[in-house]
Amino acid sequence: SKHASKQIQTTNRKVSLLEQPIVGNLAATFLGGTMLNLTDYVQQDTRTPSIVRGCYVANATPQFEKPGHHKGRPKFIGKAYNVAAKRDIASWTGFIPLRPLIGRSRHWNVHRAKALNSMALAMLHYTNVITWQVETSVDVLTRQCRLDTKSRAGNHSISRGSRLIQDLEKMGIIEGKLAWDDVAGCWAYKALTVTALFWDMVGVGSEEAIKVREQAWEKWRTEDAWMKDGLDPTYALNLSHKEYCQLRMDRLKQRAFEYRHRKSVTAAQIRRAKRLVAAGRDAMRREVADSMFKKLTPEDARRSMQDPTAFNRAVSLAVYRLEVLAMEPVPRE
Predict the structure, then answer these.
(1) 174 vs 84: CA distance, rounded Å
(2) Statement: residue 303 has pLDDT above 80
(3) HSE-up of residue 212 (Cα within 13 Å, Cβ side)
(4) What residues does 179 pair with on adjacent strands?
(5) How confident is the model at residue 55 (pLDDT cuts 50, 70, 90)?
(6) Which of 130, 116, 323 has its CA nearest to residue 214?
(7) Cα distance from N-terminal residue to C-terminal residue, the chain
(8) What region, left, alpha or beta, does residue 24 occupy, with left being phi > 0 and alpha being psi -120 to 50 degrees?
(9) Which of 184, 223, 217 is nearest to 333 (CA)?
(10) Torsion over CA: 39, 41, 43, 48 (sign)
């Protein structure tokens, strides 16, 4: 036992030497005849974290910017926007009981909070006071809040904004409904509708928003505002509020589908023009002539072979248009 207690005292003395601060760049301590190299030991200030985490988002200061051509928004929307812009929406106390619905128990981090504040303003700006529908796409909301990202390969992503919208859906602040595009064969549009909780979140209150919606609906019916929607008088005056909301949503989906198809066709045409121009003028002219000749009817083809002047003129015009189109940038996906 004497020998054991002596060993314990020796060990404690060795540990106390290790715990002492080291001064200088090089230090060596002899313990029990063995040299322990402490060159790499650096005394750190416990108040300073050893690892400083940098910014991990593409844009640390997202901010919604109203489009310059958007004028004449409803008075209530303008009032609500001014109220929401002056407050920290992410600090709304209503999030405390709602966060468990998305698997969170702690507060928003600084990047998530800034993204939420800008996205709430964007949705508020595009909200229809009668239907409470956000009359734009998730893609537009994300871009105008500067929450979109682009990879090194050039692929565009809106996941930062879409994930935030999914969280708001789970908490019941907004409602989202996906629409299937039969032409493209994919889910192409997500219709967003705010709920009563949304108005409480932005700071104007759900009671005032409901009252304004009822007044706006009555005004639409009595002051012939339905004429701006191009509706038949008999049909418009017999519309219920629910049917009118569905009508607006169908028009939004149709407009989104048409824009998507028009954009994809334009992008395909520009890519084809760039490919033909890169192949050289002779090769481009030959391919354009073959393509145009295949589309001619038998009678027009016979006439073109007898007198090729008009056909060559049409080919030259098509080549010129392709050269002009090839100078355009390819639209963003």
Answers:
(1) 16
(2) yes
(3) 20
(4) 189
(5) low
(6) 130
(7) 80
(8) left
(9) 184
(10) positive
Counts of helices then strands in the chain (DSSP H, E): 13, 7
H or E element, residue 45: none
pTM for this structure?
0.65
Residue 332: what pLDDT? 63
The average pLDDT across 236-265 equals: 85
Q: Which two tokens stand for residue 318?
A: 């098509």
Neighbour-count burial of 304, counting CB atoms closer than 10 A to its CB (0-12 exposed, 13-18 middle, 19+ buried): middle
Residue with tokens 């108040």: 47
Closest CA to 220 of 252, 250, 247: 247
The span from the CA of 304 to the CA of 311, in Å, is: 6
Element (H, E) at 30: strand 28-31
For 303, the token pair is: 């006439």
Q: How far apart are CA 171 and CA 162, in angstroms?
A: 14
Strands (E), 81-236: 133-134, 149-150, 156-157, 174-181, 186-194
The two three-digit tokens of residue 302, written as one number: 């016979």
